[in-house]
Specification:
47% helix; 2 strands; mainly alpha; 6% strand
Length: 162
């Protein structure tokens, strides 16, 4: 999803050319910039697994403080507040806050259903499972692509490749 986060930062530059591109990228990637800090502090957890999503060997076990919807909104408010404190007018500051929120939205569309709504809250599903969620009400197949089979080969019940 990195290209999506970069794309919204570039769109932000078109909307507000006076803001530095680096600051726009920092806002768009903000949740991912917080995530390793929380990992090092032991607040969030990741494990190495057998390539759960075909892109990375990292399995996101718990990341409610950087990637839950509630905290994304909180971090957006923090970004907006810091931008105002540093002297940006309201509209550019609001853009920076919106870019932070856009990160969660883009991750929700592209991730397996594992993003919590709030710290301590349940998630629509875990990596390697098929969950019932707003995007996958039948609880079948890949909720992102809509295909009628799980994402992973060797997943229980996956059957042969089609």
């Amino acid at each position: 999803m990195f290209i999506g986060h970069a794309a919204v930062a570039l769109l932000g530059k078109a909307r507000s050319p006076s803001i530095s591109l680096g600051l726009l990228f920092a806002a768009a990637f903000g949740l991912d910039l917080l995530w390793p800090v929380f990992l090092l502090l032991g607040v969030e957890r990741v494990s190495i697994s057998a390539n759960p999503i075909g892109f990375s060997t990292l399995s996101f076990d718990s990341y409610p403080w950087s990637h839950s919807l509630l905290m994304a909104l909180v971090w957006s408010g923090v970004a907006l507040g810091l931008a105002r404190w540093r002297g940006l007018s309201f509209e550019p500051a609001l853009l920076l806050g919106a870019l932070v929120t856009s990160h969660w939205i883009l991750d929700w569309v592209s991730h397996l259903p594992d993003l919590p709504l709030y710290p301590g809250g349940s998630t629509p599903g875990r990596a390697g499972t098929v969950a019932v969620s707003a995007r996958n009400p039948a609880g079948r197949g890949n909720p992102v692509s809509g295909r009628d089979r799980p994402l992973l080969r060797g997943h229980p019940g996956a059957g042969p490749d089609r």
